[in-house]
Amino acid sequence: MAFKALFMAHAPDAEKSEHRSFIDTGMYQLWTVVVKNQQEAIETCRELIEENQIDAVLLCPGFTHADVAEIAGVVGPNVGVSVARGDGPSNRIVPAYAKGHGKN
Fold first, then answer.
1. What is the extent of the structural domain holding 8?
2. Is residue 64 part of a domain?
3. Do the beta carbons of residue 51 and residue 22 sit within 8 Å?
4. What is the per-residue DSSP string for the chain?
5. Quick check: 103 pLDDT over 60?
């Protein structure tokens, strides 16, 4: 039985139906999807969890604590939710990028 994970990232020009990939090693299945916003992130979680019984959701640093909490509530207690948080320089890039793209 494979472990199934979903990785999501934000980009303002993303098309969630186009900007995605799937890797299957046999023991590990990984879906990656780039979404425009939180609404698309929630939709993507619901779709992929229902269709593929995802075990874990991995989020890029662009997801705020509130976003992560909302996703955790949507996916339920049987799906793990993790957030990639980096070192000082990489953590500073996210707010600067979001501010320059109208997110903050």
1. 3-55+69-100
2. no
3. no
4. --EEEEEEEE-TT--TTTSEEEEE-SSEEEEEEEESSHHHHHHHHHHHHHHH--SEEEE-TTS-HHHHHHHHHHH-TTSEEEE----HHHHHHHHHHHHHTT--
5. no
- Residue 98 CA to residue 21 CA, distance in Å, equals 24
Q: Residue 41 has which token pair?
A: 């992130």
Question: For the whole model, what pTM was predicted?
Answer: 0.82
Domain count, the chain: 1
Whether residue 81 is contained in a domain is answered as: yes
pLDDT tens track for 12-32: 899 999 999 999 999 999 999
40 inside domain: yes
- Convert the pLDDT of each residue in 48-99 to its tens digit: 999 999 999 999 988 888 999 999 999 999 999 999 876 666 666 656 555 5
Does residue 62 belong to any structural domain of this protein? Answer: no
